[in-house]
Amino acid sequence: MIWKRTMLLFLLTITGLAFETSVFGRATLVGTKPELLLLVVVALGMCEGPAVGATAGFVMGLSTDLVLQLPAGVSALTFTLIGYFIGRLRAQVTTTSAWLPIVMVCSSTFAGVLFYAAFNRALGEHFGIFTVLRAAGLSALYNGLLTPFVFPIVRALAARLRPPPSEVLH
Amino acid sequence: MFDRSRRLRVLLIVLVIASLTIITIDYRSKGNGPFEKIGHVALTILSPIQHGLVTIFRPIGNFFAGFTEVPSLRAHVSQLQRQNALLRSGQNTVADLQRENESLRRLLELRDRYNLDTLTAQVIGVSPSNFERTVFIDRGSRSGVKKDMPVVSGDGLIGRVIRVGPSTSEILLLIDRTSSVASRIAPSGETGLLEGDGSDVPHLELFNPDAAVAVGDRVVTSGYDQGLYPPGIPIGTVVAAPPARSNLSRVVTIQPYVDFSSLDYVLLVISARAPRPARSP
To answer: Residues 6 or more apart from B10 whose CB is under 8 A from it?
Structure first.
């Protein structure tokens, strides 16, 4: 089962990156692109728990850094923390509202973009505060709009390959 | 339960330490470390998928691009209506046509004047990062692409190659905040450094604070950027020329000729510094 989940993670990463760079690189929301892989990480964290969320965050974040030649490790750290904390947070939230994934995706995308920009600033990169807030707000909104389409797909794929309860870290 | 919780914390700590280690290695190697090579391999794996997706989804992507950019399109329509009114009243008509004609003529002459060897490539991807302005093309080292090659389109300068894989390359657009291009105001010859800031309108910092610049002036490459860009390639026009804020330089805003949101085919300048001898009159 573990190799199937590894394969799923690999396929989601490659597909997500390919869509991000081809389709969503052009289909922008007022000039801003969505954070598709971050959306997938949040979906996995919500559906499969913090362990899968953190692991998927690390793999997808590092892939993003390497493929796009971004400062290596920063997206990995951002996505890992988002995946972990979303998984923990989901376990504490009892509501079954259909809006919950959208709210969690929007808020975590906003926080993720801010964290990414702040960490890069600490490494010497300079982003304007308006640019960062605009990118964070619009990509959070864009991810929120994509959630009803992406979230069910990720949830269904992950559920098919879910291991027995004894093997799950909660 | 306790054991699971502890394992979970250990997992998080391991992943965070791994991320911080990678950040440290990459930061210290300044882009020449092991991750550069891994990135090339990853990009090579990704490029055929990108190519296929671009072919399949470009119409859908263009549809969504139009759908999601309604506010900016409205502004664009409003701007075009204003320009249309100006044209109708006969103002600027001749000047606009002359400028356009001059731009096209210069571009057509570019290859002949500088004996340019060019390579055609198709844009197969755009960086999804909201802080980077780069695109990916379907040509790499196998086709003779090299780092720092200038890239142009039919409208003017696009940028330069910053990363080369076997079958794909990455282009840094001139509007990226890390891009700088030695440029020149065509009518006056005043030189400066064109710097992107991530928006669609880069800024040109002129070395002479008293430089004579007017809105509508054409901006071209100066060719001083350590020989990176051939001189005379059109970049854009001046859209705002406020007075100098200091006595060291003057900053003006440029509207590039190239529409960076709809790049398709581009030209890579393989050899740019082998000018043909001047023809005798």
So the answer is: none
Which of A14, A22, A168 would you mutate first to test chain B, the one with the most B CBs within 10 A? A22
3-state class percentages of chain B: helix first, strand second, coil last, to nearest 5: 40, 25, 35
B41 Cβ contact partners less than 8 Å away, ≥ 6 residues apart: none
pTM for the full predicted model: 0.69
> Which residues of chain A lie closer than 8 angstroms to B67, CB-CB?
27
Name the percent of chain A lying above pLDDT 90. Answer: 35
- What span, in angstroms and rounded, lies between the C-alpha atoms of A146 and B41? 29
* pLDDT tens profile B211-245: 888 888 999 888 765 568 888 888 999 998 887 66
Q: Which amino acid is at B244?
A: A
Q: Which of A24-38, A115-129, B7-21, B50-64 is least confident?
A: B50-64
CATH number reported for the structural domain that contains residue A86 in this entry:
1.10.1760
DSSP string, A39-55: HHHHHHHHHH-HHHHHH
Give the whole-angstrom CA distance, residue A8 versus residue A1.
Answer: 11
By the 8 A CB rule, do B42 and B55 touch? no
Is there a contact between A21 and B72 if contact means CB atoms under 8 Å apart? no
Task: Say if A63 falls within a structural domain.
Answer: yes
Residue B215 DSSP code: T
Task: Name the residue range of residue A116's domain.
Answer: 2-162
β-sheet bridge partners, residue B205: B193, B251
By the CB < 8 Å criterion, does B170 face chain A? yes
pLDDT of residue A71 exceeding 90: no
Q: How far apart are CA A102 and CA A150, in angstroms?
A: 11
Say whether B139 sits in a helix, a strand or coil.
Answer: coil
DSSP state of A64: H
Tokens representing B59?
């119409």
ipTM of this predicted structure: 0.84
Find chain A residues with C-beta within 8 A of B135's C-beta.
Answer: 25
CATH of domain B74-275: 2.40.10.340
Eight-state DSSP code of residue B275: P
**Residue B178 pLDDT > 90, yes or no?**
no
| Domains contained in chain A, number | 1
Q: How many CB atoms lie within 10 A of CB B172?
A: 22
Does A60 fall in a domain?
A: yes
Distance CA B158, CA A29 (A): 22
Alpha helices in chain B (DSSP H): 2-29, 34-68, 70-88, 93-114
